[in-house]
Amino acid sequence: MNTQIKIVSAIVSFLLLMTGQLVKAQKTSAGETRFGVAFETGLPTGPSAKEYKLSLGGTGTIQYGVNDQLVLTFTSGYYNFLSKTLGTPFAPYKRANLQIVPIKVGAKVFFYDGFYAAGETGMAIEAVSGGGRKFILAPALGYATKQLDVSVRYENLLGGLENYGLVGLHTAYGFKL
């Protein structure tokens, strides 16, 4: 667990440093289309926290500016939930890592000088033979500049026999198309 905390702390420190260097408020003009590539990390919550220790992944997002305050989004990518070692010291076992392909649509509402509230919904596909599909709900709070977008989100994947959740950090580099 200490290694995970160190990794997350290093990422957050780097992002804060970069945000200070890139302080230009988000201005999304009506009709503007942007693309962002993101690193995703998260800590599993609920029942999934018993079997998985960390989620790592990457996503790509297309954003369309409706006006200066509202942006529509389409996001897809890949999440890998890393399995914990379970059992006893004499009989340890690991469940296979869980790979998820999220496909989400959503919106960002900018409420103050680059700060936004966002919501996404969609489908998650388990990337295994016979893998199931889950419904995704993902609210977030974040800050965006012209190049950098950082947000904290809660992501809930619902459906089937097992539900998954995570509290995640989204770090993206974006550019105008």
UniProtKB/TrEMBL annotation:
Keywords associated with the record: Signal
Top-level division of the source organism's lineage: Bacteria
Leader peptide range in chain numbering: 1-24
Name assigned to this protein: Outer membrane protein beta-barrel domain-containing protein
Species of origin: Mucilaginibacter rubeus
